[in-house]
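Private note to self, pasted from the team thread so I don't lose it. Backbone tokens:
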């Protein structure tokens, strides 16, 4: 969707060494793993060859061993296609030099590939409407893994079943999750948790500054943006009950002109804090907000260390960090498709929220809320009505 992440992979690090089955049994983390149904829901949306229907008969993609409960393991990982080299193909909807969300993903791929003598092919700035064709084009280059950098490109996912992508492991940075099939593995988190905790942090700053109006700027008006905005507002009102939120959907995560125009309109309405829940246009909005001394939140990657522009709150759901938990098992030959790894606020090191320069006891209050989300004392899924826990039960609930 949306500070360059150096060393951020360590924030999740050992959250899940084997990625799939081992995660659900970890005593130090409640990261959960779920598997795909045996019959893919995406089958009706693709022109896959008849051989791609193997999942419906109980076998894995392309005859790979496994089952619907534990996922399916591609033989010969990481050289899945057996051509003597390992190639990762990254498809991104945004600019992979954006110093933020999109670049984080590619940074992790490049760093891991360099350390292991692999090759990375990157195609970025892919419009949603061209996602499927970009995936087919990528598969024609015979990568061992196709990595979809953000869930905006979900229309590419059914292509994983097409004959052109045979013997290719697919990874999807699901963000708030996409419909799981046996043909890919995804990482995600819970938008009710991320949105609520970041809203609570914003509320603390608003209370300190006696501010009651906040601005939320994002791209298309779709479920994962409207859901996050809803949770963010609920989090704010947990601290400032009479707060109001002005929301603008620009239709584009990366159009800086539209994003700054939206910010200027919100500023004229009296906002005292802004969340540019954006991709490539995030920096432009934060730069404009800096000039007006209006604090801003980050979208995805750690940014408290940056000073030009500067952020007031860092909301961390870093796709590069999550991707690292898949690349390690892929290298070791244990990454299973048909599974989803979900990270939880207050349990795993990421996602999390940080106030960059906290005042008074703000940091302690935010840390306590994040802890209570992790133990289940606070249930953002219920408070927001998003109900996105999907069977997950916090350890203290």
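Design output:
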């Amino acid at each position: 969707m949306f500070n360059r992440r150096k060393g951020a992979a360590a924030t999740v690090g050992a959250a899940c060494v084997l990625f799939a089955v081992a995660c659900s049994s970890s005593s130090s983390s409640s990261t959960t793993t779920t598997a795909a149904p045996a019959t893919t829901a995406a089958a009706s949306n693709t022109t896959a060859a008849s051989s791609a229907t193997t999942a419906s008969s109980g076998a894995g993609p392309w005859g790979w061993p496994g089952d619907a409960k534990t996922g399916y393991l591609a033989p010969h990982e990481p050289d899945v296609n057996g051509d003597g080299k390992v190639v990762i193909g990254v498809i991104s909807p945004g600019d992979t030099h954006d110093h933020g969300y999109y670049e984080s993903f590619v940074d992790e791929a490049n760093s891991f590939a360099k350390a292991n003598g692999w090759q990375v092919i990157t195609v970025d700035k892919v419009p949603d409407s061209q996602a499927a064709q970009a995936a087919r084009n990528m598969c024609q280059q015979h990568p061992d893994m196709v990595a979809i950098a953000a869930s905006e490109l979900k229309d590419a996912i059914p292509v994983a079943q097409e004959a052109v992508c045979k013997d290719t492991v697919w990874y999807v940075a699901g963000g708030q999750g996409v419909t799981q099939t046996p043909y890919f593995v995804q990482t995600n988190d819970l938008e009710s948790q991320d949105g609520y905790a970041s809203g609570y942090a914003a509320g603390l700053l608003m209370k300190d500054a006696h501010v009651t109006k906040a601005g939320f700027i994002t791209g298309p008006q779709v479920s994962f943006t409207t859901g996050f905005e809803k949770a963010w507002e609920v989090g704010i009102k947990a601290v400032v009950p009479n707060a109001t939120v002005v929301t603008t959907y620009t239709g584009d995560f990366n159009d800086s002109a539209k994003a700054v125009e939206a910010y200027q309109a919100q500023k004229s309405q009296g906002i005292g804090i802004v969340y540019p829940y954006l991709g490539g246009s995030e920096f432009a909005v934060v730069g404009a907000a800096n000039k007006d001394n209006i604090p801003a939140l980050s979208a995805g990657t750690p940014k408290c260390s940056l000073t030009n522009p500067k952020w007031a709150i860092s909301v961390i759901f870093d796709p590069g960090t999550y991707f690292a938990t898949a690349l390690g098992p892929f290298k070791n030959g244990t990454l299973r498709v048909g599974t989803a790894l979900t990270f939880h606020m207050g349990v795993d090191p990421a996602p999390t929220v940080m106030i960059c320069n906290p005042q008074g006891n703000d940091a302690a209050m935010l840390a306590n809320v994040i802890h209570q989300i992790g133990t289940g004392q606070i249930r953002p899924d219920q408070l927001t009505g998003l109900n996105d826990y999907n069977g997950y039960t916090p350890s203290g609930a």
